[in-house]
Write a structure and sequence with these properties.
The structure is a single chain. The protein contains 2 helices and 6 strands. With 85 residues, the protein is α/β, with parallel strands linked by helices. Strands 1-3-2 form a 3-stranded mixed sheet.
Length: 85
């Protein structure tokens, strides 16, 4: 089953954190890239202290961003047979 082309599920799946602030269209073609301010607002609004996410290749298997408020975990070694991670 493939995710839909648009909607909340697609936005959550394909949106990625970036340095800086605000939102901008994603290089992936789906979702958005979002900054530290967006992460802080989401955490505050939902009374959370941390976001742990996946679905973005990280060379070392994980990455901590936005002042430690967001962690990306990716545990697919040699993703698609060509990443070498």
């Amino acid at each position: 089953c493939e995710p839909p082309d648009e909607g909340l599920m697609t936005e959550m799946l394909w949106s990625d954190p970036q340095s800086g602030y605000g939102r901008r269209p994603s290089k992936r073609g789906f979702g958005v890239e979002f900054g530290e301010d967006v992460t802080a607002e989401f955490l505050r609004t939902n009374n959370l202290g941390l976001i742990i996410r996946s679905h973005e290749m990280k060379e070392d298997g994980y990455d901590v961003q936005h002042g430690g408020a967001l962690i990306t975990i990716f545990s697919a070694p040699n993703y698609c047979g060509h990443m070498g991670n």
